[in-house]
Design goal:
Elements (H helix, E strand, L loop, with lengths): L3 E5 L6 E7 L3 E2 L9 E16 L6 E14 L2 E6 L5 E17 L19 E18 L2 E17 H5 L15 E10 L2 E10 L4 E12 L5 E9 L3 E13 L2 E10 L4 E12 L3 E10 L3 E9 L3 E10 L3
Antiparallel strand pairs: 1-2, 2-4, 3-4, 4-5, 5-7, 6-7, 7-8, 8-9, 9-10, 10-11, 11-12, 12-13, 13-14, 14-15, 15-16, 16-17, 17-18, 18-19
C-alpha cells in the first residue's frame, strides 16, 4: 500500500493538496516448481484540492497497472579441488515482465511532480542476471565472494510497434536502450565496475560509468570513476578515505570535468563514528559556492540535526 498525502506550497503559482492512494495486490505462484510467476494488479486513485488554478479547485484521476512477472533460476556448482577456494557457483536468472497501464487524460490536472502525469504502458521487459560466487573455507569458517556480476535488460513497447505511421519517413522504434551493469571482484580488496546505457538504434552509448575500487583491512578506501553522458558531460570522480585512528576517518572527493578542463567540485571531510552515533564535518568547494556542513546521525534513526554555512566564491 504505497500512498501519500502532500501539501504543495510556494509564493507564486498554483498550490494545493494531493491524496494519492496506490495499493497493489499480487499472487506469487510457483508452477511445477520450475518458475516464479507473480501476477499483480494496482489500482490508483488521486484526489486534488488546488488553489490559484483557473480550471477549478477539485480534481481526481483513476488509473490502474497490471503486471505479470515470470522468472526462473539456473544454478551449477563446480568443485575446484583447491585448499581455500572450495567451489564456484554459477547462477543465471532470466526474467520477463509484462506491464500494462491504460491511457488517461491528465492534462487538466494540477502539475506538481511526476505523480501527476503517469504514462501509459503496454510492453515487455526482458533481462538476464548472471553471478559467479566463490566459496572459501578457512579454519572451519565459510565465506563467500561474488567474483563476477552481470545484469542486462531491454524493453519492447507494443504500443509503439503497432501504432500508425504519421508519414512516409516516420519509423517505429519499439526497442528501448539496452542497460547493463557489470562488476568484477578478483579479490576482496579490489573491484572493477561498469554501467552502460546503449542506444539500440544509433549504435552508441548514451551514457556509461567505469570505476575501480580498492580497500584494505584497516578501512582505507580509494575509488576512481569515469562518468560519461553524451552531449552533456564527461568527468572523472575520485574519492579516498583514510582511517587516521579507529573512530576517525579523513575523506576527500573531487570531480574533474574533461569538457571544461577544470574541477567541478572538491569535498574534504572528517568523520567520527561511535557505537550508536556519528558526526561528519565537510568543506565543499564548487564553481558557484563554498559550503561548510556539519551532520549528526543516530544509528537506526538517520540524520537528526545539521548545521550549514555558505560562503561566497573566491
Amino acid at each position: 500500500f504505497d500512498s501519500s498525502f502532500v501539501n504543495f506550497s510556494r509564493k507564486l503559482g498554483m498550490t494545493g493538496q494531493r491524496l494519492d492512494i496506490h495499493p497493489r495486490l499480487s499472487l506469487p505462484l510457483n508452477p511445477g516448481g520450475y518458475f516464479d510467476l507473480t501476477p499483480s494488479f494496482s489500482p490508483r486513485a488521486t484526489f486534488y484540492m488546488a488553489s490559484e488554478n483557473p480550471r477549478g479547485r477539485f480534481f481526481d484521476r483513476y488509473i490502474y497497472e497490471a503486471t505479470v512477472d515470470l522468472t526462473t533460476t539456473f544454478v551449477r556448482v563446480f568443485e575446484t579441488g583447491f585448499e581455500d577456494l572450495k567451489a564456484l557457483r554459477h547462477t543465471i536468472r532470466p526474467k520477463l515482465i509484462y506491464s500494462y497501464v491504460p491511457e488517461a487524460v491528465q492534462n487538466d490536472l494540477p502539475q506538481f511532480d511526476a505523480v501527476d502525469n503517469i504514462g501509459s504502458a503496454n510492453g515487455v521487459t526482458y533481462s538476464i542476471n548472471s553471478t559467479v560466487t566463490g566459496k572459501y573455507m578457512e579454519d572451519g569458517v565459510k565465506s563467500y565472494l561474488d567474483y563476477f556480476y552481470l545484469d542486462i535488460s531491454q524493453s519492447f513497447n507494443i504500443n509503439e510497434a503497432t501504432r500508425k505511421l504519421a508519414s512516409a519517413t516516420d519509423k517505429r522504434r519499439p526497442f528501448s536502450n539496452v542497460t547493463g551493469e557489470a562488476r568484477f571482484t578478483p579479490a576482496w580488496w579490489a573491484a572493477i565496475s561498469g554501467k552502460g546505457n546503449y542506444n539500440y538504434y544509433k549504435h552508441w552509448f548514451d551514457s556509461y560509468d567505469a570505476g575501480l575500487g580498492l580497500e584494505d583491512s584497516r578501512g582505507d578506501k580509494l575509488n576512481v570513476t569515469e562518468r560519461f553522458i553524451r552531449d552533456t558531460t564527461k568527468y572523472l570522480e575520485a574519492s579516498a578515505r583514510v582511517r587516521l585512528i579507529k573512530p576517525l576517518d579523513l575523506t576527500y572527493l573531487i570531480r574533474y570535468s574533461f569538457d571544461q578542463q577544470k574541477s567541478l567540485e572538491a569535498v574534504w571531510g572528517l568523520e567520527y563514528t561511535h557505537q550508536c552515533w556519528s558526526a561528519v564535518l565537510t568543506y565543499t568547494e564548487r564553481l558557484e559556492e563554498k559550503i561548510v556542513f556539519l551532520t549528526f546521525s543516530l544509528e537506526g534513526l538517520g540524520k537528526v540535526a545539521g548545521v550549514q554555512g555558505s560562503m561566497p566564491s573566491f
